[in-house]
Amino acid sequence: MTPTRAATPPRLAFVALLAALLCVFLPVPRADAAATAAIQEVTGFGTNPGALRMYRYVPDGLPAGRPVVVALHGCTQNASGYGTGSGWTELADRWGFSVVLPQQQPGNNASSCFNWFQAGDIERGQGEAASVAQMVDRQLADASGDPAKVYVTGLSAGGGMTSVMMAAYPEKFAAGGVVAGLPYGCAAAAGSPYVCMYVGATQTAQQWGDRVRAARPGYAGPWPRLTVFQGSADYTVKPVNMTDLMKQWTDVQGADQAADVSDSVAGYPHQVFRRADGSAAVETYSITGMGHGQPVDPGSGAAQCGTAGAYILDVNLCAAYTMGHSWGLG
What we know:
Strand content: 15-25%
Number of strands: 12
């Protein structure tokens, strides 16, 4: 039986509707016919206070002790479509890891957007954030996965929820990847999800960092490292949000906001912000001329992955590969 959420108060319902209307409508990519296993639903993974559904992809014969990647879809997508279209299931077969694919339900949000902006879903131990955390625990137990090698990523509203998971459950994730997403607490900082997405919020790096620290009081680290992909021509989630994500997570990591590396990858501007010990705290990729979507590079080359489609954009750079490679998955 499909779980349902209790009735939403009128004010929150209005905010949810607003964000749903603002979220881009993303079609579901076709499944990857080359995959050797199948995406399967998992039930009974916990108390599931956020009323989400859990899907996962586990390559055939996956040994114990392998990494886990959580991949969060965008608005109107589903778990399976995003997992295959983004390239994550393809890479799971290639490199040997499992993928957790949370799925939003229309009863929670009319456009199936994760509620990255709603207080009851972005706090530790509550709502959708707690449901995703329970999925991680279930997958680690079922697959005997490596708890030190769990990663989280997502597109658009899924990118916003990636920020939520990194802030509310930092001890669970070694790193995160936000694609066309938002900083943690952006809706509250800006006054609304609309302002956050289209204008951004006026916050200092410390103010941004304080929002993350408040999500996990007393936590001393380590904090997950962050990779961000953002289209320079994205008019749904403005590029200022990548700058704000950089400010937020460099502050949390104790790094400054001056890039230690400024170069190009596949012809696109790339920056690295390092901690005092020289390790990367934040990496950013500005995809010149790209609108709102997930960067992919379809093909059979070593660095290629993904399936092009509307809002799954062939820009000759696969974000999933780039993230996974930097995380040491392959």
